[in-house]
């Protein structure tokens, strides 16, 4: 599908962003292995989270919905999953595959999990190795690095993981496997990655302790089904926040967006660039911090240097941050972000190629991007490379560029932001 964009009129008023993708996945997974029902409201009905529902159904869990973003999971407890009769398909979703591998590692049965062409190229050894050391047998191509992966789980021993990467998917896979091991499993990471798994495990009744970059979990807890109200996804909100920051006259409110500090690096960096963003009515919902976000055009963004501990806090927002950088004055350097190469696409390459099509001055670095901002961008025909965040970043660039933009392969946006196209069309001149 092609998405056509013209330079936009101002973005005005309230826009609702769909539920958080990371939290939606976790609510279904924990709901499935908890005792009793879990009611999930504002669930993200994007394709990634539908893949998680589909896998859990194949593992014998009855799930109602999504119906108006409401999902009911009839949990069967830690030991209630059944051997799947067919291959589990995680689609495009790295979170589904890596987190589910953690759960499958603890099951006394055989399962096979695969995904689409992009996911079958993404590295899984980062989870299959520690899960193997815990006692699961996992086989796949390239030394169990590439899906399809066959898992024979069960009889896990607790583990201490000192992870080389700051990855919530790695941390979560090991913690979920740790639920099935008698004793304490701990994970240490170089920088703190998103902590939704820790928060939700605690909310469902597990014994979890967090101390800086270390997480400790006691195995074999009794998880109890809960009501989870999923906050709006800051990763989706970021596209509209950047759009409002670069399209003259814009002034928008995004109600009920998650502002967990392990996710809100994009706000910190946009503030540093000079963006006009306010957090209104800050509150806590279901163990997660939430706020209404107001974003207004300022017309004077400037370049920044971003790296280190900030990177895991905005890793999914780098494509749209690069758009802001291309439209800002001065140079932006994004470093320590080599992880971008193993996302839904190689985002160092695809962001540079996409912005280059608009006439932006962007250089690829081994671990990030260097953007010399301030050029007048010209509408372009860009490819999504099957990557939802590249497609949306291109659409936002198109709003601020001169002339028409076409985003090819824009159907992948449904992976995380169903309704994005409708919002964009509503603001076109
Ligand atoms: C996610 C963790 C991040 C992120 C992904 C979602 C999660 O991946 O990029 O979109 O829900 O845990 P990594 O753990 O690979 O950094």
TrEMBL record:
EC number(s) reported in the record: 2.5.1.19
Q: Which keywords does this chain's UniProt record carry?
A: Amino-acid biosynthesis, Aromatic amino acid biosynthesis, Cytoplasm, Transferase
What chemistry does it catalyse, as a reaction equation? 3-phosphoshikimate + phosphoenolpyruvate = 5-O-(1-carboxyvinyl)-3-phosphoshikimate + phosphate
| Job description of the protein | Catalyzes the transfer of the enolpyruvyl moiety of phosphoenolpyruvate (PEP) to the 5-hydroxyl of shikimate-3-phosphate (S3P) to produce enolpyruvyl shikimate-3-phosphate and inorganic phosphate.
**Cellular component GO terms held in the UniProt record:** cytoplasm
Quaternary structure and interacting proteins, as annotated: Monomer.
This protein's record includes keyword Cytoplasm = yes
Q: Per UniProt, where does phosphoenolpyruvate bind?
A: 21, 94, 122, 169, 347, 389
Which organism's genome codes for this protein? Answer: Pelotomaculum isophthalicicum JI
Q: Which InterPro entries does the annotation name? A: Enolpyruvate_Tfrase_dom, Enolpyruvate_Tfrase_sf, EPSP_synthase, EPSP_synthase_CS, RNA3'P_cycl/enolpyr_Trfase_a/b
UniProt name for this protein: 3-phosphoshikimate 1-carboxyvinyltransferase
**NCBIfam families membership:** aroA
Domain Enolpyruvate transferase: residue ranges: 6-422
Q: What is its main location?
A: cytoplasm
| GO MF, one example | 3-phosphoshikimate 1-carboxyvinyltransferase activity
Query: What pathway or pathways are given for this protein in its record?
Result: Metabolic intermediate biosynthesis; chorismate biosynthesis; chorismate from D-erythrose 4-phosphate and phosphoenolpyruvate: step 6/7
- Please name the top-level EC class of this enzyme: transferase
Q: Which SUPFAM superfamilies match?
A: EPT/RTPC-like
Residues spanning the signal sequence: none
Family note: Belongs to the EPSP synthase family.
- Judging by the UniProt lineage, the source's domain of life is Bacteria
One Pfam family, short name: EPSP_synthase
Active-site positions on this chain: 316 (proton acceptor)
GO biological process terms on file: amino acid biosynthetic process; aromatic amino acid family biosynthetic process; chorismate biosynthetic process
Question: For binding 3-phosphoshikimate, which residues are annotated in this chain's numbering?
Answer: 21-22, 26, 167, 169, 316, 343
């Amino acid at each position: 599908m092609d998405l056509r964009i013209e330079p936009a009129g101002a973005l005005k008023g309230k826009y609702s962003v769909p539920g958080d993708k990371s939290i939606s996945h976790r609510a279904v997974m924990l709901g499935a292995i908890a005792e009793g029902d879990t009611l999930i409201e504002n669930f993200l009905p994007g394709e990634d989270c539908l893949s998680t529902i589909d896998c859990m159904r194949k593992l014998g869990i009855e799930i109602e919905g999504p119906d108006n973003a409401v999902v009911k999971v009839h949990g069967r407890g830690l030991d209630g999953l059944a051997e799947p009769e067919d291959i589990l398909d995680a689609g495009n979703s790295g979170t589904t595959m890596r987190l589910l591998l953690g759960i499958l590692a603890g099951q006394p049965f055989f399962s096979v999990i695969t995904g689409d062409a992009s996911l079958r190229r993404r590295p899984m050894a980062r989870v299959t190795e520690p899960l193997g050391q815990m006692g699961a047998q996992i086989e796949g191509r390239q030394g169990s690095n590439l899906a399809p992966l066959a898992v024979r789980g069960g009889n896990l021993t607790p583990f201490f993981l000192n992870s080389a990467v700051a990855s919530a998917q790695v941390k979560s896979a090991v913690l979920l496997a740790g639920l099935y091991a008698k004793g304490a499993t701990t994970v240490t990471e170089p920088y703190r990655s998103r902590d939704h798994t820790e928060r939700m495990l605690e909310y469902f009744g597990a014994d979890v302790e967090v101390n800086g970059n270390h997480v400790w979990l006691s195995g074999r807890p009794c998880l109890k089904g809960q009501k989870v109200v999923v906050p709006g996804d800051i990763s989706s909100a970021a596209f509209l926040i950047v759009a409002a920051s670069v399209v003259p006259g814009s002034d928008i409110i995004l109600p009920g967006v998650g502002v967990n500090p392990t996710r809100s690096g994009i706000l910190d960096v946009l503030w540093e660039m000079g963006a006009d963003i306010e957090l209104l009515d800050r509150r806590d919902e279901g163990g997660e911090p939430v706020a209404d976000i107001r974003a207004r055009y300022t017309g004077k963004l400037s370049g920044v240097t971003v790296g280190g501990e900030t990177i895991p806090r905005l890793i999914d927002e780098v494509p749209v941050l690069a758009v802001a950088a291309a439209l800002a004055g001065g140079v932006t350097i994004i470093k320590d972000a080599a992880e971008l190469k193993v996302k839904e696409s190689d985002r160092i390459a695809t962001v540079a190629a996409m912005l280059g099509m608009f006439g932006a001055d962007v250089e690829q670095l081994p671990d990030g991007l260097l953007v010399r901002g301030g050029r007048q961008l010209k509408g372009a025909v860009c490819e999504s490379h099957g990557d939802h965040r590249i497609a949306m970043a291109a659409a936002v660039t198109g709003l601020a560029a001169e002339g028409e933009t076409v985003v090819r392969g824009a159907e992948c946006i449904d992976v995380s932001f169903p309704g994005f196209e409708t919002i964009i069309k509503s603001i076109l001149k």
